[in-house]
Fold:
Amino acid sequence: MSIPTDEAVDCTSRDIQTSLKSSSASVKGKRVYKRKLGFPAPAFIDAEVIADREISGSELQKRMLEKLHVNVSISVINRVRRRMGWVQMSTPCSQMICAENKETLFFCSEILMQKDEFNDCIFTDESTVRCERFLAKQFRRLGEPSIPKPKHPFSVHV
Structure:
């Protein structure tokens, strides 16, 4: 017994419409995230964390969407990062002097040796602009020593 072609078309279009209505991808304004990551994603996450130890989960999410065209939730990214051995710790402060600050220190010691009293200068209020980025948290692998940050990073007083 053959099925009339009109009924077969109606049935197929109805099935398609039903599946489109039930799929979460068709809901407007709702993002559809992957729950598991395939091959290139963990290697990409590892390379990005090695390049920038202070990278956040939301920044990794944006970069994965731009470069790999993979839309994944932040919790999945954090889970994969933990499974690869990356732990989040506070960044320790240590007594380090940047190369730019060494030059400033040398200039100041010369001024002190010249005994300049700055009688020909006018001083006003100042504002400090830091020229380096240091966050309170960084990632490292278990057993790996943490990377210290300078206690006084390069900054400009305006």
User: Anything to note?
Assistant: The chain is about 40% helix and 15% strand. The two ends are 89 Å apart (CA to CA). Residues 93-117+124-135+145-158 form one domain. The CA atoms of residues 111 and 117 lie 9 Å apart.
